[in-house]
Amino acid sequence: xxxxxxxxxxxxxxxxQTPEEVVAQLxxxxxxxxxxxxxxxxxxxxxxxxxxxxxxxxxxxKLLAVILIIVVLQGVYSSFFKIAPSEVGVILRLGQYSxxxxxxxxxxxxxxxxxxxxxxxxxxxxxxxxxxxxxxxxAVIDTRGFDMExxxxxxxxxxxxxxxxxxxxxxDPYAFLFKVSDVRQAIRDISESVTRRIxxxxxxxxxxxxxxxxxxxxxxxxxxxxxxxFPKGMSGVSIGTVQFQDINPPDxxxxxxxxxxxxxxDMKRLVNEAQETYNRVIPKASGDAKKMIEEAxxxxxxxxxxxxxxxQRFNDxxxxxxxxxxxxxTRMYLETMKETLPNVKSVYVxxxxxxxxxxxxxxxxxxxxxTIQPKSxxx
Length: 379
Fold this sequence. Notes:
disordered C terminus, 13 strands
């Protein structure tokens, strides 16, 4: 079966034309439109072409008509515009601010409204003291030739090398476009000025050990100065982050600085060791001293209380003795015997007429055998 048999009944299907073919057809149609030549008569006909000669104004009118059509088509095409999700559109009408359009499809008056697209989601950054390179998809930091940006003088007249990054976003698209002629250069100049002034008011050691506080101070003052340079605080940008990448002394003095740093670390280590010994010994000695003092106070109070108690007891016994001497004497004797006899192992009973000790039963000895004391009795 041939290709003609496979064609659909409504005719041959045209394939999509390429842009070159479309342009070529358009040029051919324009040439035919402006051509003054009529279709040539058939061969063999000796008659001359009929009709008056064409006027030159006719071609001008056709040209103006084509230009008008092109202008209208271009105006219709340019009246619709699309804003990406990360962008906003600023519309100027006859050179004056008209409105700000959010992301999406919008309409504007052609040839009267002018559109400016601003990326408000992208985080822009400015680098000071170095530049980031990305050869072969790898990030490389280049610090050569940027010493004029990074070298600063501290309050104690020391030179320090500071490298930092300022990140910012567009906060007001209209102010960003028309209130500042060069936002990037303004941020660089003000950031460098603020950083140099803050670092110049601090000592070398403070700058090295407090980079976070330094970055926060630079961020706050940078935003304040940017807003203060323009009416109503419309700088158009919002400072997001200030990061200090590297804070070091210059390469020429790094060996000496390392030696000083090592000596300072040794000094701090010795001071910490001494403080540790002090904290271990002094509190213990203080505690022992307080303990001895408190024990002395306790012993003093005990002796005084005992003495006062004995004195009071003696006075009470004396008063009772004065009232009943015999009874008191007997009671004191009995109380003394009651306390003494339990600790006595041997008892001697002596009679004035007895020439030798009287043997008694030793109750405390095993078997209860009697023992005779060898000691002679005294009359």
